[in-house]
Amino acid sequence: MNILEKIIADKEIEVKLRKKLIPIEQLEESVLFDRETISLSNKLKNSPSGIIAEHKRRSPSKSVINQDLNVFDVAKGYEKAGVCGMSVLTDGKYFGGSLDDLLIARASCKLPLLRKEFIIDPYQIVEARAQGADVILLIAAILSKDEIKYYSELAQSLNLEVLLEVHNEKDLKKSLFDSITMIGVNNRNLKTFEVSLETSKELSSIIPDDFIKVSESGISNVESIKELQQYGFKGFLIGENFMKTSNAGESAKEFIEKLEK
Ligand SMILES: O=P(O)(O)OC[C@@H](O)[C@@H](O)c1c[nH]c2ccccc12
């Protein structure tokens, strides 16, 4: 089994358990369920920098990135830095995150929040809504075309935006639905962890213009962003580069200042 297959096998067990513990009807009673969501795609359209900053404690590729920062400070710091949105990893076993992280981020800032999760069941989409997310990630590599259509339409009906993640042309081909606003090209191969910004550049020309292009992973300098902007990218998802420092918000602030100069 490769790492992605392992993550999915564990996720199936986890979701089954969660569904038993908290029935979907109960999620729909959350006070956050009817809150007005905030559009990430609108922010990206109108921003010169387009940074989506991530909260990520560890990852299978890097093990520990940072266990000392608290979500409250990170969210406040990112907001102060002027990012367009915040991504919160909610997977526990492989990334050290939780749904509580999402809830705390929600309570700490007014940024659009992306629930960064391996979504394999509609239950997790309702859960994202109930815990204060504005955007969900759908990963094309782990979903069928029918699932992508169904899940993105469900998200849309809950006023959640969808960032659809692709790794190659095959992923992209099965993912072009009206219910999706943003396409994210992951520069990291989730099976081998290899990172190459070339992936974004190569796929940029075949992403139709009606989708906002986001480049994800392995971005550590403003030069890369300036280059990717030439290929039509409007959003840039950055985790480790900020999280590995002792003050993620301050790092994001310096980065954005340099980028917008
Ligand atoms: O820390 P980085 O290299 O800046 O990457 C952030 C983000 O793109 C990455 O965490 C990510 C992109 N897609 C994912 C899917 C699942 C888990 C994590 C991810």
UniProtKB/TrEMBL annotation:
Cite the entry's keywords alphabetically.
Amino-acid biosynthesis, Aromatic amino acid biosynthesis, Decarboxylase, Lyase, Tryptophan biosynthesis
The UniProt entry, under Pfam families, shows: IGPS
Which SUPFAM superfamilies does the UniProt record give?
Answer: Ribulose-phoshate binding barrel
Quickly give the catalysed reaction. Answer: 1-(2-carboxyphenylamino)-1-deoxy-D-ribulose 5-phosphate + H(+) = (1S,2R)-1-C-(indol-3-yl)glycerol 3-phosphate + CO2 + H2O
Entry keyword Amino-acid biosynthesis: yes
PANTHER family in UniProt: INDOLE-3-GLYCEROL-PHOSPHATE SYNTHASE, TRYPTOPHAN BIOSYNTHESIS PROTEIN
Protein's name in the database: Indole-3-glycerol phosphate synthase
Q: Which organism is it from?
A: Gilvirhabdus luticola
Print the organism lineage: Bacteria, Pseudomonadati, Bacteroidota, Flavobacteriia, Flavobacteriales
What gene codes for this chain? trpC
